[in-house]
Structure formats: C-alpha cells, structure tokens
Design goal:
It is built from 17 helices and no strands. It is mostly helical and 386 residues long. Residues 218-370 form the DUF418 domain.
C-alpha cells in the first residue's frame, strides 16, 4: 500500500507540474514574437479580457516551474536511497544520467523551445547529487547559502526593475522568425541567441539548487507518508494561505519588478503548498480518481510529454506550422490561448494513457533508459578491462 500511495502521489504531482509549465508557456507560444515579445510585453489583451489574462498568467507564473524543480529533487533523493539500499556508491553513475538529461535539453532547446528547463536541471542535478553525499548538516548549509545567493541576486534585479524608467513597448523583432520564418529559421535564431536565451539558467541556479535540496529534505521527512500530516499542514498554510494571495497581489499589480519577485521569490513557496496538498490527498491510500487517472500517465511519461507539448504548441502557433499566433489580436488572444492549452493538455493526457497501455515507459524515457544502460555497461566493461 505504501508503494502504491507514494507512486500515485508522485505521478500525479509530476503530471500537474508538466501541464502546469504548459499553462505558463502557452502564453509565450501565442505571442506573435515568441519569448522576445512575451518579455517585452507587447501582446496584451484588451477590454474585458485584460484582467482575465493578468489573473490566468499570474496563477501559473512560477508555481509549476517551482513544483517541477522540487519534484526533480525528490526524484534525486529516491535514486540516492535506491543506490544506498543496493550498497552502491553515490553519486556513482549519476553523472551519466545528468549528461543524458543535458542532451535532451539541448535537443528540446534547438528544435522546439528557447525556454527549455532540462539543461538547467541537468546541471543542478549534478551539483546536488554530490551535495547529497555530504552530511545533513552540510546539506542544510549548502541550501542556506543557495537561498542567500538567490535572495541577493533577486533583490538586485527587482530593485533595478522597480527604479528603472518605464519605456513603451515596441516591436522587438524584424524580421520575425516566429511568425514568418521556417522551422530551420527558428532553429538558427535560437542558436544565434543561445547566450541570451540561456541566461535564466544562470540566474535561477541558486534557487534550483535550494529547491532540489528542499525536495530531497521533504522526501526524507516523509512528506508522502501519513505520519507527516503536521508538516503538510504547515506547508499548505504557508504556501496556499499566505504565499498564494501575496503572489497574486504582487505579480498582478507590481509591474515588471512584481512579476519577477513573484515568479522567482514567492511562487516557489506556493509550489510547496501544492506539493503538500496533493500529498495530503493521497496520504491515506486514496485511489487516484478521475483527475488522478488523467494526470498520472502524464507524470509517468513526464519527459516525453514535456518535449511533445512544446513541439505541438510550436506547430500550432508558429509560422512554420499553422501560424495561429500571428492571427491573434487583443480580443482573441485570451480565449484562443486558453483553448490551445486545453487542446494540448488533452492531447498529452490521451496520448500518454494510450502509450502506457502498451508500453512500460514513454518513448523518450525508453530511449533515455536504453542509452543509460548502454553507457553504464560500457563504463563497467572498461573498468573491468583496466
């Protein structure tokens, strides 16, 4: 029963995190200038749709990125516990796993999306894997240092944004590869601007390290077990009762500074509240239910669904596909964006369920696992020959 309860909660949480990142990113896909236009802020809804857009964007902003990051930390702790139970060294072959995840991220970035998170998670996971081999005291020290560095960097950025002179938004791209370019034109655009588009990885690295370590610590504390009800209650009160209203207020009315503060400063606490709420729901061995049965397959094929949803959204929105983003205006951007999110999310839930009816792993998970097995066997063979 413990294994079933734990795996159900983990799968549902991963499913929520993956589809939640889509709820954030879909607004970038439907911006006529992609990530550049989304940052500049030119595409805005008009009339009664404007407050709807603000609320919908803020509800997703940063929360599911934080949840996905914490889930990676929990996954890392599970891998470490499994290795120690087998009396295997840690981190052992984990650098191979991190290297394969980085390759997945490079492919996802080059082909589908300039806001890929996999490369950053690969680097973070490699750092945290070695931190987890240290004592608990040193892990806590590392988490405190990471939090302090992140708070310092975030404070400087928020202060700069708050004191900067407002500039009217304007067209950022001419020519516009998102609307007018081919698939290869957009690939070339990402490669030409790789340093700019990958700056977020550097900016959020301390936060990611802290959230990975938080996920590992929560797993050790039994966040998924019935006995951790008091811990879950505290996280729900802090994350959903305090942080969520504050995040909505700051992000909706604080301008660019508030948006950044909410996404990178407050939203991670909301993510912990979501984690605790879902864990509490399944802590007594509750069956997955209709929603859980829809989300769990997405969680089990998280890597495949994450990459596939980016590919599908790009095909629907960019000029090399159906080009929907280029035909939207202030009166249509909100309903169409919401419709596209529901369409892509439904496609992910249906496709993952159908796939797992026949196979044990998602397609990219299978390739990743086969590559890992091949590379680690090669390492063992080389070590034995030497």
């Amino acid at each position: 029963m413990v294994t079933t309860r734990r795996s159900t909660a983990l799968d549902v949480l991963r499913g929520i995190a993956v589809l939640g990142t889509l709820a954030t990113n879909i607004w970038i896909f439907t911006d006529v200038e992609g990530l550049v236009g989304y940052i500049v802020g030119e595409r805005r809804a008009t009339g009664a749709w404007e407050p709807v857009q603000v609320v919908l964007q803020q509800l997703a902003q940063g929360k599911f990125l934080g949840l996905l990051t914490v889930m990676f930390g929990i996954g890392l702790a599970i891998q470490q516990r499994s290795a120690l139970r087998r009396a295997a060294r840690w981190p052992g072959a984990y650098p191979v796993r991190a290297g394969l995840l980085f390759v997945d991220g490079v492919i996802n970035y080059v082909l589908f999306t300039e806001f890929d998170v996999l490369m950053g998670y690969a680097v973070t996971g490699l750092v945290v894997a070695y931190i987890l081999s240290a004592s608990i005291r040193r892990q806590r020290l590392a988490a405190a240092v990471a939090c302090g560095v992140h708070a310092l960097i975030l404070g400087v950025v928020v202060l700069a944004l708050a004191t900067a002179s407002a500039t009217p938004p304007g067209s950022a791209l001419s020519p516009n590869p998102y609307r007018d370019g081919s698939f290869l034109d957009l690939v070339a655009f990402r490669l030409d601007n790789v340093l700019l588009f990958r700056l977020e990885i550097v900016f959020i690295l301390p936060m990611s390290i802290a959230l990975f370590l938080a996920g590992a610590a929560l797993f050790r504390a039994g966040i998924l077990e019935p006995t951790a009800r008091r811990l879950r209650r505290r996280l729900m009160i802090g994350g959903l009762g305090v942080a969520l209203p504050l995040d909505l207020l700051v992000g909706s009315f604080g301008g660019s500074a508030g948006l950044v503060l909410g996404r990178y400063g407050i939203a991670p606490f909301v993510a912990l509240g979501i984690l605790a709420a879902v864990a509490e729901f399944y802590s007594n061995g509750r069956a997955a239910g209709v929603v859980g049965r829809a989300l769990a397959p997405v969680g089990r094929t998280a890597l495949s669904c994450y990459v596939l949803q980016n590919a599908l959204a790009g095909a629907l929105c960019y000029g090399w596909g159906l080009g929907i983003a280029g035909r939207l205006d202030g009166t249509t951007v909100v309903p169409v964006t919401v419709g596209l999110f529901l369409l892509v999310a439904a496609a992910m839930t249906i496709a993952s369920r159908l796939w797992l009816a026949r196979f044990d792993r998602g397609p990219l998970e299978w390739v990743w696992h086969a590559s890992y097995e091949s590379l680690t066997r090669s390492r063992v063979s080389a070590a034995s020959r030497s």
